[in-house]
Design brief:
Length: 356
């Protein structure tokens, strides 16, 4: 048994070494020094939102570096103990395996903005109340998933359904690597079930579109200029719940980027200026996607507009009748425990997508 433990630990040491190379810890330490310098700037808190983001990244990065280094030390310690054949290391090895797997997943998130917060939107497809109800179920699923990862969420915009559910919802997910983990959720999600809105309980298929963007600042998009002359601002009274001030004053914002025709809205904050700031954040994310896809199309020789997370780009099917199954059409991962998935247990699907 001790020999088996030594072989397992040797494998863990090998995995750890490979992951460390991919993570480029020296680059992370350089970024940490830069953030620590920024955090001492007396003018930092002149912009509270910017300061919050800097302090959040600084804390996340410091924790990540500490975890990487402490994990390496513990692997070395357990390796030495195993060579001396002292005690049963089964429990310690189990804990190390879990920590290495988390580190491995983080190493797969090497995209430029993977560690950023995410902006998630859900649009109900055609099908009236059925589709709107499905959109609300997805919204609840993602909120539960975020809770399981101790991420915070903040509602930006919601358009309630006429009878039930939601037509559209947009929210921000605040957490380390939120965009990296959630970006693969973008696409069309299909639900098959017995209709709860039909007396005959007929089988019904509903669709909802999920979009995921990174939450970006001006400094994140040095090659994308957003001039005042390119922006068309419109203000209106919010239709969502938000108290008397939101209802009686034109606090909601609709922003159109004239060169691209991209339109974004924000309406959940009590003050117009806050919604203006959120609208610009949404626009930056959409412009980044727009430029990224334009460049991909140029390289591939593709003409025409590209629409990310477009209808028809079905990524996952959720079947509740006549049998129960959730299946990802890209990774082929599937489970019969559909209720668990809709309760936010998405790790198996998200991790499989990251490993592609």
């Amino acid at each position: 048994m001790m020999k088996d433990s030594q072989e397992i630990i040797k494998d863990l040491v090998s995995q750890y070494s490979k992951i460390i190379k991919n993570l480029d810890i020296e680059k992370k330490k350089d970024r940490l020094k830069s953030l620590e310098a920024e955090s001492t700037d007396p003018k930092l808190w002149d912009d509270h939102e910017k300061a919050r983001e800097i302090m959040q990244e600084l804390g996340d990065l410091k924790n990540e570096i500490e975890e990487i280094e402490s994990l390496g030390e513990e692997i070395s310690l357990v390796s030495e103990i195993s060579k001396e054949e002292k005690g049963d290391l089964k429990e310690e090895i189990g804990k190390l395996k879990k920590r290495i797997e988390t580190l491995r997943l983080n190493s797969l998130l090497s995209g430029e903005y993977d560690r950023k917060d995410a902006i998630v939107s859900i649009h109900a497809g055609q099908g009236g109340t059925e589709a709107m109800d499905w959109a609300s179920i997805l919204y609840r699923m993602y909120l539960r998933y975020c809770e399981s990862r101790n991420w915070k969420t903040k509602l930006i915009e919601v358009s309630e359904g006429d009878e039930a559910g939601i037509k559209k919802v947009t929210f921000v997910v605040v957490g380390s690597y939120a965009y990296g983990y959630l970006k693969g959720e973008a696409g069309t999600h299909r639900l098959v079930r017995q209709s709860p809105f039909n007396a005959d309980k007929l089988r019904h298929t509903s669709f909802a579109l999920v979009g995921v963007l990174p939450k970006l600042d001006d400094v994140d998009l040095p090659n994308v200029e957003i001039g005042d002359e390119d922006l068309d601002w419109q203000f209106f009274r919010a239709s969502s719940k938000g108290g008397q001030n939101v209802q009686k004053v034109s606090t909601a914002v609709r922003l159109t980027h004239k060169p691209t025709g991209i339109v974004v809205t924000a309406q959940t904050e009590r003050y117009q200026e806050q919604n203006r700031k959120i609208a610009l954040e949404l626009l930056r994310g959409k412009l980044w996607v727009f430029e990224e896809e334009k460049q991909k199309n140029k390289v591939a020789g593709i003409k025409g507009d590209y629409r990310p997370a477009s209808w028809g780009n079905q990524i996952r099917s959720y079947v509740l009748h006549p049998y129960k199954m959730v299946k990802d059409l890209r990774t082929k991962v599937e489970t019969s425990n559909a209720e668990s998935v809709l309760d936010g247990n998405l790790d198996e699907f998200i991790e499989a997508e990251l490993g592609l």
